[in-house]
Amino acid sequence: MVRDGYFYGISLFAVAALLYVLTHSLWLPIVPVLLAFFFLWFFRDPERAIPQGPGLVVSPADGKVTSVLRVTTPDGEMLRMSIFLNVFNVHVNRSPVTGTLREVRYQKGQYLNAMNPESAEKNEQNRAVVVADEGYAVSFTQIAGLLARRIVFRPAPGSRLERGQRVGLIKFGSRVDVILPGNAEILVKKGDHVQGGSTVLARMPEHDPLAESDELLVESLV
């Protein structure tokens, strides 16, 4: 369990006990007790079986895939995948690949509904870029939703991350966007439910045919 769960849970149990001492009522403490159990459940952090194998990109979050799109960026064509987390999902986030954390960029913002496309630009968010051991980069952005009021991300740039490693969480409803290289083989589709650390979102090719053809061309010119 995430430590926040103990903080909220113990605090609410204390409120329930205080209400009982002051009023000797069995009914008034029911609400804080129920809320305490909810927070203990909400901040659960189950163990996950992490898939092993070259080029696998796992989901950084639990939730539902709401879009899979090809987008044009300054670095070329990329694949962007959005995962929506409702209040019933596990909210612990994990690293999608094994590699080095190259960049972490936090942005203050609004709290639009995470299903709103504008939330990707306007909401509070935290973007992390991990360079996998194989050389490609995967970024994932924690985006606060309508209820979320705090994003937690613990590793610092330069940190070594393992695939499926816990890196932080978003409190309450939220969204995570994943940006993958354009040559990734997508293994999920819109509407699929995924689990952080255990669902494989995509597979990266072990060899890039375009890169190999360029090398052959250079060799022939030499």
Protein model, in words:
Helices cover 23% and strands 35% of the residues. The protein is an alpha+beta fold. The protein folds into 2 domains: 3-42; 56-204, Distorted Sandwich (Glucose Permease (Domain IIA)). It has an 8-stranded antiparallel beta sheet with strand order 9-5-6-7-11-3-2-13, with no helix packed on it. It has a 3-stranded antiparallel beta sheet with strand order 1-14-12, with no helix packed on it. A hairpin with a 2-residue loop joins strand 2 (63-73) and strand 3. Helix 1 (3-23) packs antiparallel against helix 2. The longest helix has 21 residues, at 3-23. Mean pLDDT is 86; it is low at 208-222.
Count of discrete structural domains: 2
Amount of helix: 10-25%
Number of helices: 4
Stretches with pLDDT under 50, minimum 5 residues: 208-222
**C-alpha Rg (nearest Å):** 21 Å
Task: Outline the fold blueprint.
Blueprint: H1 3-23, H2 30-42, E1 56-58, E2 63-73, E3 76-85, E4 92-94, E5 99-107, H3 119-122, E6 125-132, E7 137-144, E8 151-153, E9 160-161, E10 166-170, E11 174-181, E12 185-186, E13 193-194, E14 200-203, H4 209-221
Antiparallel strand pairs: 1-14, 2-3, 2-13, 3-11, 4-10, 5-6, 5-9, 6-7, 7-11, 8-10, 12-14
